[in-house]
């Protein structure tokens, strides 16, 4: 799978999110997702929200996805934008 496709899927499922996806082997990926929708949610809930945007591809076409999920405020404090 192409990282650009994963980025599109996450952006479609979390409108307004800023998404960066990296991965060279086609099955293992890393993503940073910045979204207002994460406000007040614990990391596990945030990850589930991202996984939901990918549906059946998780565990299939996408073998592993390492996530960093941030609100815009958290990203700003961390110097990520």
From TrEMBL:
Belongs to the BolA/IbaG family. InterPro entries: BolA, BolA-like_sf, BolA/IbaG_stress_morph_reg. GO terms for cellular component: cytosol. It comes from Solilutibacter tolerans. Pfam families: BolA. This is Transcriptional regulator, BolA protein family. Signal peptide: none annotated. GO terms for biological process: DNA-templated transcription. It comes from the Bacteria. Coiled coil: none annotated. SUPFAM superfamilies: BolA-like.
